[in-house]
């Protein structure tokens, strides 16, 4: 076999990314998007699937609304759900995030599709060639991340601390060590291209202590754009798994009001916690994306909300018990990322002041 000549062509870049997910001759792939999409990106994905020899079909989710609100464009028992369940792999470049209703990854129908054995490859940086190139998975990133998930799954307790005052303990015994490396190479595996992270869903009533979200950390979309870093500290106090008090200045008050306005009790519990492993991810700035935000090397991601999200693949999915109090709108899942934190598994230090220090996980 000859190696394809290197060019700057976008479809060749996509082809290389999809080949990592074992898309080849005869793979039955559904190229999925909302009804609003980036035509250039979709064309490149189509060319890439063709040149890999995939047996593919383009699937555009129907726009769905309920009154003035968005509704899930993939409804239970719908034709589109059946198509996605019958695919070997769903390829979903997200090019218009937030502009129109999109399938939520924490919806029951999403879980049903994954549990049918379909692999699901999200690419939330689908239209950004810059990010696709910069965050392309490397063997070293994949190895350290997979090793981290194995270590996470063995752990019984998890603790995070920081010089700014964080001290939070969690029970993670019997929970799945989840990894994201941007590749889906096993039945039922879900992943998101450009990501590198290790996470777990802690036992839902176990969080105890406090988290200091320092200036320069991120509370993500709970407080606006991902790029809006905190201008001042926010302290969240946890008892029996729940946020019971939020301390700080005007940002803390805004956060408190925002959580209350959602009227979704699941947001007061931790969905997942872990660390970023992508050494090419950059923190903050224009064009910042969820991939970099959550995958930033040595950051601690701490997300709130529902965490059911089962998959069939090992070291994949959250398999938690924090169920949604309402089926829609989605998602009742969001959170933030912390810099300069320490993370311990069973008293072994894994991350120290924002640097991964455990030898086999660096
Ligand atoms: Fe999350």
Radius of gyration: 20 Å
The helical percent reads 10-25%
Q: Could you say how many structural domains there are in total?
A: 2
- Ligand inventory: fe (ii) ion
Would you kindly provide a written description of the structure presented here, covering whatever features stand out?
The chain is α+β, with helices and mostly antiparallel strands and 362 residues long. The protein folds into 2 domains: 10-133, Rossmann fold; 136-361, no CATH class. It is 23% helix and 27% strand. The chain is built from 8 helices and 20 strands. It has helices spanning 10-20, 39-52, 79-86, 108-115, 129-134, 139-154, 250-262, 290-295, and strands at residues 28-33, 55-60, 65-66, 69-70, 89-93, 119-123, 157-162, 167-171, 178-180, 190-192, 197-200, 208-213, 234-239, 242-248, 270-276, 300-305, 333-338, 341-345, 348-352, 355-356. The strands form 4 sheets. The protein has an 8-stranded antiparallel β-sheet, covered by helices on one side. Helix 2 (39-52) links the parallel strand 1 and strand 2 (55-60). Helix 1 crosses helix 2 (39-52). The longest helix has 16 residues, at 139-154. The two termini are 34 Å apart. The site of fe (ii) ion has 5 residues, from strand 15 and strand 17.
């Amino acid at each position: 076999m000859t190696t394809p000549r290197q060019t700057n062509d976008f479809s060749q870049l996509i082809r290389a990314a999809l080949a990592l997910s074992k898309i080849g001759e005869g793979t039955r792939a559904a190229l999925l998007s909302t009804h609003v999409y980036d035509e250039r990106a979709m064309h490149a994905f189509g060319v890439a699937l063709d040149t890999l020899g995939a047996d593919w079909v383009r699937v555009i989710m129907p726009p769905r609304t309920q009154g003035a609100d968005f509704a899930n464009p993939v409804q239970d028992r719908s034709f589109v759900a059946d198509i996605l369940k019958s695919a070997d792999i769903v390829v979903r470049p997200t090019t218009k995030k937030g502009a129109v209703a999109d399938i939520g990854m924490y919806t029951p129908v999403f879980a049903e599709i994954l549990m049918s054995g379909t692999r699901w490859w999200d690419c939330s940086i689908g239209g950004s060639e810059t990010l696709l190139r910069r965050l392309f998975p490397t063997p070293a990133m994949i190895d350290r991340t997979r090793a981290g998930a194995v270590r996470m799954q063995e752990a019984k307790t998890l603790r995070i601390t920081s010089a700014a005052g964080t001290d939070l303990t969690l029970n993670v015994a019997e929970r799945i060590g989840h990894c994201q490396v941007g590749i889906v190479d096993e039945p039922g595996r879900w992943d998101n291209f450009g990501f590198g992270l290790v996470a777990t869903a802690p036992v839902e009533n176990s969080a105890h202590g406090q988290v200091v979200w320092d200036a320069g950390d991120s509370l993500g979309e709970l407080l606006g754009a991902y790029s809006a870093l905190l201008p001042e500290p926010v302290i969240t106090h946890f008892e029996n798994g729940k946020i019971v008090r939020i301390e700080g200045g005007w940002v803390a008050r805004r956060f408190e009001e925002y959580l209350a306005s959602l009227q979704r009790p699941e947001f007061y519990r931790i969905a997942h916690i872990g660390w970023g492993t992508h050494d090419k991810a950059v923190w903050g700035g224009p064009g910042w994306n969820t991939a970099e935000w959550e995958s930033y090397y040595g950051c601690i991601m701490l997300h709130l909300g529902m965490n059911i999200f089962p998959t069939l693949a090992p070291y994949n999915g959250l398999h938690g018990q924090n169920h949604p109090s309402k089926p829609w709108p989605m998602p009742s899942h969001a959170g933030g990322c912390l810099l300069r934190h320490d993370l311990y598994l069973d008293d072994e230090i894994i991350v120290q002041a924002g640097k991964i220090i455990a030898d086999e996980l660096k």
